[in-house]
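As the work plan foresaw, the team has encoded backbone shapes as discrete tokens. One protein thus recorded appears below exactly as we store it.

:::
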Amino acid sequence: MCLITGVGPGTGSALARRFAHGGYRVAMLARSAERLGALERELPGSRAFACDVGDAAALAQALSEVRQTLGEPKVAIHNAVSGSFGTFLDMAPDDLERNFRVNVLALLHLARGVVPDMLARGRGTLVVTGNTSALRGKPSFAGFAPTKAAQRILAEAIAREVGPRGVHVTYVVVDAVIDVPWTRQAFPNRPDDAFIQPRAIADEVWHVAHQDRSAWSFHVEIRPFGEPW
């Protein structure tokens, strides 16, 4: 079974489809019950759990329901993200706190909820989807980049602890503009091949989730061929 947080219209839905088509039952977590319901009908064996992962109690309840209905996940993917933008002078401090709850604390609670069973079995995978903000702080990302950097470091701390015990933790940096309707509107002059496709992200996450145990990756970066870096 595969558990995915942040099953939105782009990467999250692509991840759910990829793992469902790969034979997994998929537990899908997101705030939109309507979108999750449509995916549940599309993907046999999947189950929708409407949940705000930034609410620790709601996430704990959702994880309990997942266990009761689908069992313990073999793969867990923290794809949920909260982002807001502004310089350190004009951003709202409450936004930084909200971003931290979704990007970092939800990862902590998710890992504490699913990794112990993986350790007991001696195998399992935790994937975290990140972006370039985990590696650098630009002026207008002052309310977002610190939380993604903290997320990456938390994932690394977990990976170093549980990797030698058979649980694979990997951090996938998506250094690109993801091809979804709102980004097309935001970047109308960007050429088609400058967008990264959600299905391509999902394919790479599938790959790292199934790497041979003798060749695990932790830090993985993906970007379109034309993306400067």
Q: What stands out?
A: Residues 2-222 form a domain with the Rossmann fold fold (CATH 3.40.50.720). Helices lie at 11-21, 33-42, 56-70, 93-121, 145-162, 181-186, 198-209.
